[in-house]
Design brief:
The protein is α+β, with helices and mostly antiparallel strands. Helix content is 41%, strand content 21%. It has two domains: 239 residues, Ribosomal Protein S5, domain 2 (2-Layer Sandwich); 148 residues, GHMP kinase, C-terminal domain (Alpha-Beta Plaits, 2-Layer Sandwich), CATH 3.30.70. Strands 1, 2, 3, 4, 5, 6, 7, 8 and 13 form a nine-stranded mixed beta sheet that branches. Strand 10 and strand 11 form a beta hairpin. It binds adenosine-5'-diphosphate, (3R)-3-hydroxy-3-methyl-5-(phosphonooxy)pentanoic acid and magnesium ion. Keywords: ATP-binding, Cytoplasm, Kinase, Lipid biosynthesis, Lipid metabolism, Magnesium, Metal-binding, Nucleotide-binding, Steroid biosynthesis, Steroid metabolism, Sterol biosynthesis, Sterol metabolism, Transferase.
Amino acid sequence: MDSKWKRIIVSAPGKVILHGEHAVVYKEPAIAASLDLRSYLCVEKRNDDKVSVQFPDVKLTAFWNTQDLKKLSIPKCDPLEPQPPSDELLSLFREFTQQKKDTTDPKDLAILAFLYLYTAMQSTDGELYPLDFKLMSQLPVGAGLGSSASLSVCLSAALLTVHGVIDQPCSSDADKVMFGQWSASHLEAINKLAHQAEKIMHGNPSGIDNSIATYGGAIRFQGGNIQKIDRIPELRILLTNTKVPRSTKALVADVRKKYYTYPEIFRPVMESFAAVTEKALETFRMMPRDSSTETTDLYSTFEDLVDINQNLLKLIGVSHSTLEQICQLTSDYGLHTKLTGAGGGGCAITLLRPDTDPDIIEEVQEKLRSCGFDCWKTVVGGPGVVTHFILTQQEQTLLNNLIS
Ligand SMILES: Nc1ncnc2c1ncn2[C@@H]1O[C@H](COP(=O)(O)OP(=O)(O)O)[C@@H](O)[C@H]1O
Ligand SMILES: C[C@@](O)(CCOP(=O)(O)O)CC(=O)O
Ligand SMILES: [Mg+2]
Protein backbone atom coordinates (compact mmCIF):
# COMPACT_ATOMS: atom_id res chain seq x y z
CA MET A 1 0.00 0.00 0.00
CA ASP A 2 1.33 3.40 -0.99
CA SER A 3 2.42 5.12 2.27
CA LYS A 4 1.41 8.62 1.02
CA TRP A 5 -2.15 7.49 0.59
CA LYS A 6 -4.49 8.33 3.49
CA ARG A 7 -8.07 8.37 2.31
CA ILE A 8 -10.02 7.92 -0.89
CA ILE A 9 -13.62 8.77 -1.62
CA VAL A 10 -15.40 7.13 -4.52
CA SER A 11 -18.99 7.34 -5.66
CA ALA A 12 -21.18 5.49 -8.15
CA PRO A 13 -24.71 6.19 -9.35
CA GLY A 14 -27.93 4.24 -9.15
CA LYS A 15 -29.92 3.57 -12.28
CA VAL A 16 -33.28 3.27 -13.92
CA ILE A 17 -34.00 0.54 -16.43
CA LEU A 18 -36.12 2.23 -19.08
CA HIS A 19 -36.92 -1.01 -20.92
CA GLY A 20 -35.84 -4.64 -20.80
CA GLU A 21 -35.64 -5.61 -17.09
CA HIS A 22 -35.92 -9.37 -16.57
CA ALA A 23 -35.65 -10.04 -20.35
CA VAL A 24 -32.03 -8.88 -20.06
CA VAL A 25 -31.33 -11.90 -17.82
CA TYR A 26 -32.19 -14.06 -20.89
CA LYS A 27 -29.71 -12.12 -23.03
CA GLU A 28 -32.34 -9.83 -24.58
CA PRO A 29 -31.44 -6.14 -24.96
CA ALA A 30 -32.26 -3.52 -22.32
CA ILE A 31 -31.79 0.22 -21.89
CA ALA A 32 -30.55 1.70 -18.60
CA ALA A 33 -29.59 5.23 -17.58
CA SER A 34 -27.73 6.50 -14.53
CA LEU A 35 -29.57 8.43 -11.84
CA ASP A 36 -28.58 11.62 -10.03
CA LEU A 37 -28.60 9.62 -6.77
CA ARG A 38 -25.28 8.06 -5.75
CA SER A 39 -23.54 5.94 -3.13
CA TYR A 40 -20.39 7.45 -1.61
CA LEU A 41 -17.71 5.27 -0.07
CA CYS A 42 -14.92 6.66 2.06
CA VAL A 43 -11.91 4.38 2.67
CA GLU A 44 -9.31 5.37 5.25
CA LYS A 45 -6.16 3.75 6.61
CA ARG A 46 -6.19 2.40 10.15
CA ASN A 47 -3.28 2.23 12.54
CA ASP A 48 -4.08 -1.24 13.92
CA ASP A 49 -4.63 -4.57 12.15
CA LYS A 50 -8.41 -4.39 11.84
CA VAL A 51 -10.79 -3.78 8.98
CA SER A 52 -14.07 -2.06 9.72
CA VAL A 53 -17.30 -1.42 7.82
CA GLN A 54 -19.98 1.13 8.56
CA PHE A 55 -22.99 0.78 6.26
CA PRO A 56 -25.67 2.71 8.20
CA ASP A 57 -28.45 2.18 5.63
CA VAL A 58 -28.56 -1.49 6.61
CA LYS A 59 -27.57 -0.79 10.25
CA LEU A 60 -24.25 -2.52 9.81
CA THR A 61 -21.22 -1.71 11.94
CA ALA A 62 -18.62 -4.44 12.15
CA PHE A 63 -14.90 -5.01 12.31
CA TRP A 64 -12.66 -7.99 11.92
CA ASN A 65 -9.05 -8.76 12.55
CA THR A 66 -7.18 -8.95 9.24
CA GLN A 67 -5.06 -11.81 10.62
CA ASP A 68 -8.22 -13.86 11.30
CA LEU A 69 -9.41 -13.26 7.76
CA LYS A 70 -6.02 -14.28 6.41
CA LYS A 71 -6.30 -17.61 8.24
CA LEU A 72 -9.45 -18.57 6.29
CA SER A 73 -8.55 -20.88 3.45
CA ILE A 74 -9.67 -18.59 0.65
CA PRO A 75 -8.73 -19.81 -2.84
CA LYS A 76 -6.30 -17.50 -4.65
CA CYS A 77 -8.07 -15.35 -7.22
CA ASP A 78 -6.82 -12.79 -9.71
CA PRO A 79 -8.94 -9.65 -9.11
CA LEU A 80 -8.62 -8.88 -12.83
CA GLU A 81 -10.06 -12.32 -13.69
CA PRO A 82 -12.24 -12.82 -10.61
CA GLN A 83 -13.81 -16.18 -9.80
CA PRO A 84 -17.54 -16.12 -9.02
CA PRO A 85 -18.30 -16.32 -5.28
CA SER A 86 -18.62 -20.10 -4.81
CA ASP A 87 -21.02 -21.73 -2.32
CA GLU A 88 -17.99 -22.98 -0.35
CA LEU A 89 -16.53 -19.49 -0.08
CA LEU A 90 -19.85 -17.98 0.99
CA SER A 91 -20.30 -20.77 3.59
CA LEU A 92 -16.84 -19.95 4.92
CA PHE A 93 -17.79 -16.26 5.32
CA ARG A 94 -21.17 -17.17 6.84
CA GLU A 95 -19.48 -19.35 9.41
CA PHE A 96 -16.86 -16.67 10.12
CA THR A 97 -19.55 -14.02 10.70
CA GLN A 98 -22.04 -16.45 12.31
CA GLN A 99 -24.74 -15.90 9.71
CA LYS A 100 -27.65 -18.26 9.12
CA LYS A 101 -27.59 -20.31 5.91
CA ASP A 102 -29.70 -18.83 3.08
CA THR A 103 -30.06 -15.52 4.89
CA THR A 104 -31.55 -12.74 2.79
CA ASP A 105 -31.08 -10.07 5.47
CA PRO A 106 -29.71 -6.98 3.63
CA LYS A 107 -27.03 -6.59 6.30
CA ASP A 108 -25.85 -10.20 5.86
CA LEU A 109 -25.74 -9.91 2.06
CA ALA A 110 -23.76 -6.68 2.34
CA ILE A 111 -21.26 -8.40 4.68
CA LEU A 112 -20.83 -11.31 2.25
CA ALA A 113 -20.33 -8.99 -0.72
CA PHE A 114 -17.83 -6.93 1.26
CA LEU A 115 -15.82 -9.94 2.45
CA TYR A 116 -15.79 -11.45 -1.03
CA LEU A 117 -14.33 -8.26 -2.53
CA TYR A 118 -12.02 -7.45 0.37
CA THR A 119 -10.43 -10.90 0.52
CA ALA A 120 -10.21 -11.14 -3.31
CA MET A 121 -7.41 -8.56 -3.00
CA GLN A 122 -5.21 -10.88 -0.94
CA SER A 123 -3.75 -12.43 -4.07
CA THR A 124 -2.42 -9.07 -5.33
CA ASP A 125 0.36 -8.85 -2.72
CA GLY A 126 -0.65 -11.40 -0.07
CA GLU A 127 -1.84 -8.55 2.17
CA LEU A 128 -5.16 -7.52 3.63
CA TYR A 129 -4.84 -3.88 4.59
CA PRO A 130 -6.25 -2.42 7.82
CA LEU A 131 -8.88 -0.01 6.54
CA ASP A 132 -12.13 1.73 7.49
CA PHE A 133 -14.96 1.53 4.94
CA LYS A 134 -17.78 4.03 5.44
CA LEU A 135 -20.75 4.24 3.10
CA MET A 136 -23.36 6.94 2.53
CA SER A 137 -26.00 6.15 -0.06
CA GLN A 138 -28.69 8.43 -1.47
CA LEU A 139 -30.39 5.37 -2.95
CA PRO A 140 -33.26 3.51 -1.31
CA VAL A 141 -32.05 -0.03 -0.57
CA GLY A 142 -33.78 -2.82 -2.49
CA ALA A 143 -36.15 -0.56 -4.45
CA GLY A 144 -35.12 -1.31 -8.04
CA LEU A 145 -32.71 1.62 -8.40
CA GLY A 146 -29.55 -0.49 -8.36
CA SER A 147 -28.33 0.20 -4.82
CA SER A 148 -26.53 -3.17 -4.73
CA ALA A 149 -24.63 -2.45 -7.94
CA SER A 150 -23.74 1.05 -6.82
CA LEU A 151 -22.27 -0.43 -3.60
CA SER A 152 -20.42 -3.23 -5.47
CA VAL A 153 -18.93 -0.76 -7.94
CA CYS A 154 -17.76 1.63 -5.18
CA LEU A 155 -16.12 -1.22 -3.25
CA SER A 156 -14.48 -2.70 -6.36
CA ALA A 157 -13.12 0.67 -7.51
CA ALA A 158 -11.75 1.55 -4.07
CA LEU A 159 -10.19 -1.85 -3.38
CA LEU A 160 -8.57 -2.23 -6.82
CA THR A 161 -7.13 1.27 -6.44
CA VAL A 162 -5.89 0.86 -2.86
CA HIS A 163 -4.12 -2.38 -3.82
CA GLY A 164 -2.55 -0.71 -6.85
CA VAL A 165 -4.24 -3.08 -9.32
CA ILE A 166 -5.55 0.00 -11.11
CA ASP A 167 -4.16 3.54 -10.89
CA GLN A 168 -5.81 6.30 -8.95
CA PRO A 169 -6.97 8.86 -11.56
CA CYS A 170 -4.66 11.89 -11.53
CA SER A 171 -5.65 15.19 -10.02
CA SER A 172 -4.09 18.47 -10.79
CA ASP A 173 -4.62 21.09 -8.09
CA ALA A 174 -4.07 23.78 -10.67
CA ASP A 175 -7.09 22.58 -12.66
CA LYS A 176 -9.30 22.45 -9.56
CA VAL A 177 -10.76 19.21 -10.90
CA MET A 178 -13.49 17.97 -8.58
CA PHE A 179 -13.38 14.29 -9.49
CA GLY A 180 -11.44 11.84 -11.63
CA GLN A 181 -12.51 8.95 -13.84
CA TRP A 182 -10.56 5.78 -14.47
CA SER A 183 -9.28 4.77 -17.91
CA ALA A 184 -11.33 2.41 -20.11
CA SER A 185 -9.32 -0.69 -19.15
CA HIS A 186 -9.54 0.16 -15.45
CA LEU A 187 -13.29 0.72 -15.68
CA GLU A 188 -13.53 -2.69 -17.31
CA ALA A 189 -11.70 -4.24 -14.33
CA ILE A 190 -14.00 -2.45 -11.83
CA ASN A 191 -17.10 -3.56 -13.72
CA LYS A 192 -15.99 -7.18 -14.00
CA LEU A 193 -15.26 -7.49 -10.28
CA ALA A 194 -18.47 -5.70 -9.26
CA HIS A 195 -20.49 -8.08 -11.45
CA GLN A 196 -19.18 -11.02 -9.39
CA ALA A 197 -20.16 -9.29 -6.14
CA GLU A 198 -23.64 -8.65 -7.56
CA LYS A 199 -24.06 -12.44 -7.77
CA ILE A 200 -24.18 -12.51 -3.96
CA MET A 201 -27.09 -10.05 -3.90
CA HIS A 202 -28.90 -11.23 -7.06
CA GLY A 203 -28.04 -14.85 -7.76
CA ASN A 204 -27.87 -14.49 -11.54
CA PRO A 205 -27.43 -10.82 -12.43
CA SER A 206 -27.41 -9.82 -16.08
CA GLY A 207 -24.65 -7.27 -15.39
CA ILE A 208 -26.68 -4.27 -16.57
CA ASP A 209 -26.78 -2.61 -13.12
CA ASN A 210 -23.05 -2.76 -12.43
CA SER A 211 -22.35 -1.63 -16.01
CA ILE A 212 -24.43 1.52 -15.72
CA ALA A 213 -23.03 2.24 -12.23
CA THR A 214 -19.54 1.94 -13.74
CA TYR A 215 -19.98 3.81 -17.02
CA GLY A 216 -22.87 6.19 -16.25
CA GLY A 217 -24.83 7.95 -19.02
CA ALA A 218 -27.18 5.63 -20.87
CA ILE A 219 -26.46 2.21 -22.31
CA ARG A 220 -27.94 -0.51 -24.46
CA PHE A 221 -26.93 -3.75 -22.76
CA GLN A 222 -27.22 -7.25 -24.16
CA GLY A 223 -25.50 -10.42 -22.99
CA GLY A 224 -22.59 -8.53 -21.44
CA ASN A 225 -22.22 -6.23 -24.44
CA ILE A 226 -22.30 -2.56 -23.45
CA GLN A 227 -23.14 0.09 -26.05
CA LYS A 228 -23.14 3.74 -25.00
CA ILE A 229 -26.24 5.61 -26.16
CA ASP A 230 -25.05 9.06 -27.12
CA ARG A 231 -28.34 10.47 -28.12
CA ILE A 232 -30.66 9.80 -25.27
CA PRO A 233 -33.26 12.58 -25.33
CA GLU A 234 -33.45 14.72 -22.25
CA LEU A 235 -35.94 12.46 -20.54
CA ARG A 236 -37.77 13.90 -17.59
CA ILE A 237 -38.99 11.23 -15.26
CA LEU A 238 -41.08 11.08 -12.13
CA LEU A 239 -39.75 8.39 -9.80
CA THR A 240 -42.13 6.86 -7.28
CA ASN A 241 -41.01 4.51 -4.52
CA THR A 242 -43.84 2.29 -3.30
CA LYS A 243 -41.66 1.48 -0.27
CA VAL A 244 -42.86 -2.12 -0.62
CA PRO A 245 -39.80 -4.24 0.15
CA ARG A 246 -38.87 -6.99 -2.26
CA SER A 247 -35.89 -9.10 -3.19
CA THR A 248 -34.41 -8.95 -6.67
CA LYS A 249 -33.01 -12.43 -6.12
CA ALA A 250 -36.44 -13.93 -5.31
CA LEU A 251 -38.19 -12.16 -8.21
CA VAL A 252 -35.56 -13.20 -10.77
CA ALA A 253 -35.74 -16.80 -9.45
CA ASP A 254 -39.53 -16.78 -9.72
CA VAL A 255 -39.46 -15.62 -13.37
CA ARG A 256 -36.79 -18.24 -14.11
CA LYS A 257 -38.99 -21.00 -12.74
CA LYS A 258 -41.93 -19.93 -14.94
CA TYR A 259 -39.65 -19.46 -17.95
CA TYR A 260 -38.39 -23.04 -17.77
CA THR A 261 -41.83 -24.48 -16.91
CA TYR A 262 -43.60 -22.73 -19.80
CA PRO A 263 -40.91 -22.01 -22.39
CA GLU A 264 -43.38 -21.92 -25.29
CA ILE A 265 -45.23 -19.07 -23.53
CA PHE A 266 -42.32 -17.20 -21.95
CA ARG A 267 -39.92 -17.23 -24.93
CA PRO A 268 -42.22 -15.10 -27.13
CA VAL A 269 -42.83 -12.74 -24.18
CA MET A 270 -39.08 -12.20 -23.81
CA GLU A 271 -38.92 -11.48 -27.54
CA SER A 272 -41.72 -8.93 -27.11
CA PHE A 273 -39.69 -7.19 -24.38
CA ALA A 274 -36.79 -7.09 -26.84
CA ALA A 275 -38.98 -5.61 -29.57
CA VAL A 276 -40.14 -2.88 -27.16
CA THR A 277 -36.51 -2.04 -26.30
CA GLU A 278 -35.45 -1.88 -29.96
CA LYS A 279 -38.46 0.28 -30.86
CA ALA A 280 -37.56 2.67 -28.01
CA LEU A 281 -33.98 2.91 -29.30
CA GLU A 282 -35.22 3.57 -32.83
CA THR A 283 -37.45 6.34 -31.45
CA PHE A 284 -34.49 7.87 -29.52
CA ARG A 285 -32.53 8.02 -32.79
CA MET A 286 -35.40 9.90 -34.44
CA MET A 287 -35.48 12.58 -31.73
CA PRO A 288 -34.37 15.90 -33.24
CA ARG A 289 -31.36 17.61 -31.69
CA ASP A 290 -33.15 20.91 -31.96
CA SER A 291 -35.70 21.15 -29.12
CA SER A 292 -37.99 23.45 -31.10
CA THR A 293 -38.84 20.68 -33.59
CA GLU A 294 -42.16 18.93 -33.11
CA THR A 295 -41.81 15.68 -31.13
CA THR A 296 -45.43 14.97 -30.20
CA ASP A 297 -45.65 11.75 -32.24
CA LEU A 298 -42.34 10.47 -30.90
CA TYR A 299 -43.46 11.01 -27.29
CA SER A 300 -46.71 9.21 -28.11
CA THR A 301 -44.61 6.23 -29.20
CA PHE A 302 -42.57 6.40 -25.96
CA GLU A 303 -45.81 6.41 -23.98
CA ASP A 304 -47.22 3.43 -25.89
CA LEU A 305 -43.99 1.54 -25.23
CA VAL A 306 -44.13 2.30 -21.49
CA ASP A 307 -47.71 0.93 -21.34
CA ILE A 308 -46.90 -2.17 -23.41
CA ASN A 309 -43.84 -2.89 -21.29
CA GLN A 310 -45.75 -2.52 -18.01
CA ASN A 311 -48.38 -4.98 -19.30
CA LEU A 312 -45.68 -7.49 -20.24
CA LEU A 313 -44.09 -7.12 -16.79
CA LYS A 314 -47.51 -7.75 -15.24
CA LEU A 315 -47.88 -10.83 -17.43
CA ILE A 316 -44.62 -12.35 -16.15
CA GLY A 317 -45.83 -11.76 -12.58
CA VAL A 318 -43.53 -8.99 -11.32
CA SER A 319 -46.03 -6.14 -10.90
CA HIS A 320 -47.67 -5.35 -7.56
CA SER A 321 -50.94 -3.77 -6.45
CA THR A 322 -49.12 -0.56 -5.44
CA LEU A 323 -47.44 -0.37 -8.86
CA GLU A 324 -50.84 -0.85 -10.55
CA GLN A 325 -52.23 1.89 -8.32
CA ILE A 326 -49.50 4.30 -9.51
CA CYS A 327 -50.17 3.38 -13.17
CA GLN A 328 -53.89 4.06 -12.69
CA LEU A 329 -53.42 7.28 -10.73
CA THR A 330 -50.94 8.77 -13.24
CA SER A 331 -53.04 7.64 -16.20
CA ASP A 332 -55.94 9.70 -14.82
CA TYR A 333 -53.67 12.68 -15.59
CA GLY A 334 -52.72 11.38 -19.05
CA LEU A 335 -49.31 10.14 -17.83
CA HIS A 336 -47.70 6.76 -18.50
CA THR A 337 -45.94 4.61 -15.91
CA LYS A 338 -44.03 1.34 -15.67
CA LEU A 339 -42.17 -0.39 -12.87
CA THR A 340 -38.39 -0.25 -13.04
CA GLY A 341 -35.89 -2.88 -11.89
CA ALA A 342 -37.08 -6.21 -10.58
CA GLY A 343 -40.61 -5.04 -9.61
CA GLY A 344 -42.77 -6.72 -6.94
CA GLY A 345 -42.85 -3.32 -5.20
CA GLY A 346 -39.85 -1.00 -5.36
CA CYS A 347 -39.99 1.89 -7.82
CA ALA A 348 -42.01 3.03 -10.82
CA ILE A 349 -41.08 5.58 -13.51
CA THR A 350 -43.56 7.98 -15.06
CA LEU A 351 -42.64 9.62 -18.35
CA LEU A 352 -43.01 13.39 -18.46
CA ARG A 353 -43.33 15.18 -21.79
CA PRO A 354 -41.37 18.42 -22.31
CA ASP A 355 -44.71 20.23 -22.33
CA THR A 356 -46.34 18.41 -19.40
CA ASP A 357 -47.99 21.13 -17.34
CA PRO A 358 -45.88 21.77 -14.16
CA ASP A 359 -49.10 22.20 -12.15
CA ILE A 360 -50.22 18.73 -13.24
CA ILE A 361 -46.85 17.28 -12.19
CA GLU A 362 -47.20 18.93 -8.76
CA GLU A 363 -50.74 17.65 -8.35
CA VAL A 364 -49.76 14.09 -9.33
CA GLN A 365 -46.84 14.16 -6.90
CA GLU A 366 -49.10 15.33 -4.10
CA LYS A 367 -51.62 12.58 -4.85
CA LEU A 368 -48.88 9.92 -4.89
CA ARG A 369 -47.46 11.18 -1.59
CA SER A 370 -50.91 11.16 -0.03
CA CYS A 371 -51.01 7.41 -0.86
CA GLY A 372 -47.85 6.98 1.25
CA PHE A 373 -45.36 6.80 -1.63
CA ASP A 374 -42.13 8.77 -2.00
CA CYS A 375 -42.10 10.71 -5.25
CA TRP A 376 -39.57 13.00 -6.92
CA LYS A 377 -38.59 14.38 -10.35
CA THR A 378 -35.28 13.21 -11.69
CA VAL A 379 -32.80 13.68 -14.50
CA VAL A 380 -30.95 10.73 -16.00
CA GLY A 381 -27.50 10.40 -17.53
CA GLY A 382 -24.88 11.57 -14.98
CA PRO A 383 -21.32 10.22 -14.62
CA GLY A 384 -20.46 6.64 -13.64
CA VAL A 385 -17.96 5.71 -10.92
CA VAL A 386 -15.59 8.53 -9.95
CA THR A 387 -13.04 9.32 -7.28
CA HIS A 388 -13.50 12.66 -5.57
CA PHE A 389 -10.59 15.11 -5.20
CA ILE A 390 -12.64 18.06 -4.03
CA LEU A 391 -16.16 17.77 -2.64
CA THR A 392 -18.89 20.19 -3.62
CA GLN A 393 -20.58 22.07 -0.76
CA GLN A 394 -23.57 19.74 -1.08
CA GLU A 395 -21.35 16.63 -0.97
CA GLN A 396 -19.50 17.96 2.07
CA THR A 397 -22.77 18.34 3.94
CA LEU A 398 -23.86 14.89 2.77
CA LEU A 399 -20.63 13.23 3.84
CA ASN A 400 -20.17 15.14 7.06
CA ASN A 401 -20.53 12.01 9.18
CA LEU A 402 -18.18 9.94 7.03
CA ILE A 403 -15.17 12.14 7.11
CA SER A 404 -13.34 12.30 10.38
N1 LIG B 1 -26.46 1.41 1.21
C1 LIG B 1 -26.27 0.10 1.35
N2 LIG B 1 -25.60 -0.38 2.43
C2 LIG B 1 -25.39 -1.71 2.57
N3 LIG B 1 -25.86 -2.64 1.73
C3 LIG B 1 -26.54 -2.24 0.65
C4 LIG B 1 -26.76 -0.85 0.41
N4 LIG B 1 -27.45 -0.74 -0.74
C5 LIG B 1 -27.65 -2.02 -1.19
N5 LIG B 1 -27.11 -2.91 -0.36
C6 LIG B 1 -27.15 -4.38 -0.51
O1 LIG B 1 -27.88 -4.66 -1.70
C7 LIG B 1 -29.10 -5.36 -1.44
C8 LIG B 1 -30.24 -4.77 -2.27
O2 LIG B 1 -30.04 -5.13 -3.58
P1 LIG B 1 -31.24 -5.47 -4.58
O3 LIG B 1 -32.21 -6.41 -3.94
O4 LIG B 1 -30.60 -5.86 -5.83
O5 LIG B 1 -32.00 -4.08 -4.76
P2 LIG B 1 -31.54 -2.79 -5.57
O6 LIG B 1 -32.58 -2.61 -6.62
O7 LIG B 1 -31.58 -1.65 -4.60
O8 LIG B 1 -30.20 -3.06 -6.14
C9 LIG B 1 -29.34 -5.16 0.04
O9 LIG B 1 -30.04 -6.30 0.57
C10 LIG B 1 -27.94 -5.02 0.62
O10 LIG B 1 -27.39 -6.29 0.88
C1 LIG C 1 -34.58 -7.73 -12.95
C2 LIG C 1 -33.20 -7.28 -13.43
O1 LIG C 1 -33.24 -7.16 -14.85
C3 LIG C 1 -32.83 -5.90 -12.86
C4 LIG C 1 -32.82 -5.84 -11.36
O2 LIG C 1 -32.58 -4.53 -10.90
P1 LIG C 1 -32.71 -4.14 -9.36
O3 LIG C 1 -31.77 -4.99 -8.59
O4 LIG C 1 -34.13 -4.38 -8.97
O5 LIG C 1 -32.31 -2.68 -9.30
C5 LIG C 1 -32.18 -8.34 -13.05
C6 LIG C 1 -30.85 -8.24 -13.77
O6 LIG C 1 -30.75 -7.58 -14.82
O7 LIG C 1 -29.90 -8.86 -13.30
MG1 LIG D 1 -29.62 -4.77 -7.23
